[in-house]
Amino acid sequence: MKTALLLSGGMDSVSIAYWKMPNIAITIDYGQRPAPGEIRAASAVCSSLGIEHQILTVDIAALGSGDLSDQPPVSGAPASEWWPYRNQFLLTVAAMRCHAEGVNRMMIGALKSDGFHADGTRVFVDAMNELFALQEGELAVEAPAIGFDAVELVRTSKVPMDILAWSHSCHVAEFACGFCRGCRKHYDTMEAVNGSAY
């Protein structure tokens, strides 16, 4: 069984990389504002863990919305970083690479706390898994941390702090702004984890 992880470089996917040690990690530069920071973080983690890292560039910046892009949030966005159909697109692009690499199982970093986004739910992950099963390639999609929040994932994965420190969770810039939802989640999670032994 050959596995791949969609590795954004954020703390959730970094924790999964350490926990599940995929054969390949795939990072996608799709034109998001923090892409250079995400790529730098993902590359450092893969280098530290000895995971093959592949970076794909597929620029859809013109279709973006919210914090991750240079476009204002669209009407009805559930959060400031929402980008319509982003996860469906990223999974499809990663699946194309997985097929070429002979990957059987692709993991993504959805958590139970991502459920306010429709594409962060177990229902979405299961639907994408069923969709890929209808096509050639025999690729399964799973979210191994879907039952955890960020703190539970970090504790379960037992990722060392020197690895987790590479993660980049900012939604708006190459370097952490300290104020966006991604940075706040990062800081809150680190404080919760470091406040007690795991």
From TrEMBL:
<dbReference type="GO" id="GO:0005524">
    <property type="term" value="F:ATP binding"/>
</dbReference>
<dbReference type="InterPro" id="IPR018317">
    <property type="entry name" value="QueC"/>
</dbReference>
<protein>
    <recommendedName>
        <fullName>7-cyano-7-deazaguanine synthase</fullName>
        <ecNumber>6.3.4.20</ecNumber>
    </recommendedName>
</protein>
<dbReference type="InterPro" id="IPR014729">
    <property type="entry name" value="Rossmann-like_a/b/a_fold"/>
</dbReference>
<dbReference type="GO" id="GO:0008616">
    <property type="term" value="P:tRNA queuosine(34) biosynthetic process"/>
</dbReference>
<comment type="pathway">
    <text>Purine metabolism; 7-cyano-7-deazaguanine biosynthesis.</text>
</comment>
<comment type="similarity">
    <text>Belongs to the QueC family.</text>
</comment>
<keyword id="KW-0436">Ligase</keyword>
<keyword id="KW-0067">ATP-binding</keyword>
<keyword id="KW-0862">Zinc</keyword>
<keyword id="KW-0547">Nucleotide-binding</keyword>
<dbReference type="GO" id="GO:0016874">
    <property type="term" value="F:ligase activity"/>
</dbReference>
<keyword id="KW-0671">Queuosine biosynthesis</keyword>
<keyword id="KW-0479">Metal-binding</keyword>
<dbReference type="Pfam" id="PF06508">
    <property type="entry name" value="QueC"/>
</dbReference>
<dbReference type="GO" id="GO:0046872">
    <property type="term" value="F:metal ion binding"/>
</dbReference>
